[in-house]
Write a structure and sequence with these properties.
- The chain has helices at 2-8, 17-34, 43-69, 72-80, 83-97, 102-109, 113-123, 128-157, 161-184.
- The protein starts with a helix and ends in a 5-residue tail after the last helix.
- The protein is mainly α.
Amino acid sequence: MVALSVLLDVFVPLLPSGVLVITAATAAAAGSAAAGGAATGRVPDVMALILCATTASVLGDLAAYRLAWRGGERLDRAIARSRRLTTAQERLGEALSAGGGALVVLARFAPAGRSVVSLLAGTAHRRARDFLPWSALAGLSWAAYSVALGYFGAHWLGATWLATGVSVAALFGAVAGAAFVMRRRPVAG
């Protein structure tokens, strides 16, 4: 369920994949608390959750990238009609060409940023070898952050809805911060 939600999140950015990952991590922490509090007892579960979320994130990014690559003139016209998307496409292309894919990582935390970056990289026909390593780093960063929020939140606040709520609020804080930083970046050109 986690993998499917994270995979489809690139196409439907409103899916609560982050909330689902945090909730699964909170459940893993609850399992370790039930096992006598031995945190090491659930480390394989947490690592599997990080691997699952990271893999699904990268596969979703790759699917969107490939679809956009083959999107043709219709998708190109849709982007050309929007000055913001055209500017974003140019900025992303420059960042990937210059080896500065930090924008891809930052976009993973911004609302719909993952979708926009994956689609724009595909429509701009950026090389997969320029995009995929950054997508993998973005997926790993996001998954590790989300899992850590749920896991440690549950250990500090107990495996309750409060822990999940505080962890989700921290994720939304990162999302808001990423959106703020992305909006404040100067437009190239």
